[in-house]
Amino acid sequence: MPRIADPPVYSWLLFILVMLWTGSLNAQFGENIVLYPTELEAIVKFDGTNRRNGTDSRETEWEAGFRVGQIGYVLDPEIAWFLIDIEPVYTRSEFDSSVTRQENDGELLNYLFQTNLLRGTPGPVGVNLSAQRSSNLNTGSLGSRYDTVIDTKNATLQWKNPAFPMSLTYEERSLDEEFRSSLNSSVTERDEILESLILKGRSSKLSVHLEHASLDDRIITRDQDYELDRANISHNLHWGRNSQLQSLINYYDRTGFNANERLTVDETARIQHLDNLYSRTSYHYQSITQTIENEEHGGDFELHHRLYNNLNTTAHVNINTRDSDNVDEDRWRFGLETQYNKSNLLGANVRAGLGATYQETDRISNLGLVDVIDESHVVPLTGAVILDRRFIITGSIIVTDSSGTIVYDEGMDYTVLSLSGDLTQIQVIPGVRIDTGDTILVSYNAQQLPSQEFSTTFTNYNFSIDYDWVRFSHSDSKSDDKLISGASESFLQSTRNTLTDLEFHFKLAGIDALVGAERRFTLSGGFESTSYTYRQLFSWTTFENTRSRGILWNLNATQSFTEQESLDTDLYRIDLTANWQPRPSLTIRPTISAWKRHDEGSVITGGRLDDEFISAGIWARWRYRKVDLELNYHHDRRTVDRSQDNGLTETIDDRLMFTFRRRIM
Q: Which of 1, 225, 265, 660 has the fewest beta carbons closer than 10 A?
């Protein structure tokens, strides 16, 4: 049972803080304890949203509290330094709509105690200790209850050996949580303790990280106990003229809930033969045991040659073998790559490259399922992400952010489209949680490809020239699969990617401008896509004088047109922002953004979809002496028009947020 007010747990912190405050806050306390000025500030936050989408609703949340921070030391900061930080907060929220009304009251208490002992002394050891608690109790007028307490304790012993400094850390993290959505609903509980013991050491050549962790899940119905052992050891050895041997071992063993075992070994040797000639030889081993067993061996040899500091040539040979319960695969390849770089060639920077690789693959398949975990993609301007594998089971797709902590929702953040050539596309929905340029991780199950032996020829070339105000680049890469034996050629997948880009960059009357156009062609099996993108970027500063930094304006406009066999997409986007600082203490940033997307094709229900989004807002921050005020307001309108009857939906959001901080001491 979580306990928000548990005096025995943190009363000793309050007692220490009160004792410290009884003396002078700017001088010595007694003869040994010295305190820095106490930090005391009051905090008030507000967050309110009005939403109109057929059913009007209003949601507000208030937070009020204060934070007390005290830093000090005993005898000397390098001998014993300490920090005490306490932050109690009261919250109140209301949700009101035509369907329901609910009020919630909450109490939050966060505290932190941290001390460093002997960190700057010439002695051989140092000690870091910390204790932290975060507690939250939230009760609603309809019987909802959210009660959670997180306690973290940490102790680190440091060995200050100049040749090989090491640290041994023990950490305990406990989570006690209860959740009930309404008065008559069942209670969901979590009660667990995670203990970790970590040993770290590092020198100029060797790095060691050893860890043991165990989770005790004290809810019998969940029973997610596990133990984890992890080891990471790396070694670097330098010799001769820029020669180096790198060794890396990673071991991971988890027993209990979600049991799996992994071992990775990497060895890489770089040998400098001549001033303009060196080789790199590497070996890679990986073993994974989870629902299936998978073992992989790989070897690679590269020979690099440089001519006149401009022409770099690389010859490479690679052999790889993979054995698992579902598939056994052997692959070998060899190739040649060359790249020419020339600076200041008649005033221009020139790059050109050419490469070719031949590969043979022999695959023996049991036609099971393949588990693809955390396949990484960067979201392009069009929001269309084509997954790597074919024959994907779409119901198994999971999309997260780059850290894996945020799980995105299908239908809200993205949609899944089935393309020709047995490919699958993730279509990001603009204006939600995923933006252009974000990295997403996609996990899914796919049907294993059948047994085949085939060859693949890879070719690529690229060229670019950058001359003051103009830049032009063109690149083309393709792969051609040829069946040697086994299942039919329909399971092979030849690819081609072509990118042509032209940019003009100039400055005129204080305006910094960039105008560009891009054509991107993609061919993958039976799937074909062509995109045309036009972009314009402008920035300029106005009203600049000795007292004001002026207004920095930025305008970004983009138009993109994509043609596919079963889907055509037109996208228009414009963003206008300003950054104005009339006084050093005041900053104002208004923004206006709009985009419109038109999809048409057989993969769209009803054949057509129009999506429009307009956002206008202002952010401001004012600092004056001990007062800090931050204001943020946004007005958003989104309209979605489907071709079916009554397919028009409109959502309008008005959101106001402000934070007020007042330093008292």
A: 1
Distance CA 376, CA 401 (A): 10
Number of H helices, E strands in the chain: 1, 36
Tens of pLDDT, residues 428-443 = 877 678 888 889 999 8
Indicate the helix (H) or strand (E) that contains 129.
strand 125-140
AA letter at 237: L
Distance CA(201)–CA(158), nearest Å, equals 10
Average the pLDDT over 278-295 and give the result: 91
Q: Which amino acid is at 196?
A: S
- Sort 645 into a burial class: Cβ within 10 Å, 0-12 / 13-18 / 19+: exposed
Q: Distance between CA atoms of 631 and 126, rounded to whole angstroms?
A: 44
Report which secondary-structure segment, H or E, holds 13: helix 7-21
The rounded distance, in Å, linking the Cα atoms of 424 and 447 is 13
The residues, any chain, with a CB within 8 Å of residue 12's CB and separated by 6 or more, are none
Reference 67, options 90, 84, 87; nearest CA is: 87
Whole-angstrom distance, CA of residue 457 vs CA of residue 522: 17
Contacting residues for 23 by C-beta, under 8 A, at least 6 apart = 29, 30, 35
Distance CA 636, CA 640 (A): 13
Contacts of 166 (CB under 8 A, 6+ apart): 158, 159, 199, 200, 201
Residues 554/580, Cβ–Cβ less than 8 Å: no
Cβ count near 444 (within 10 Å): 24
CA distance 557 to 552: 17
> 296 and 285 in contact (C-beta within 8 Å)?
yes
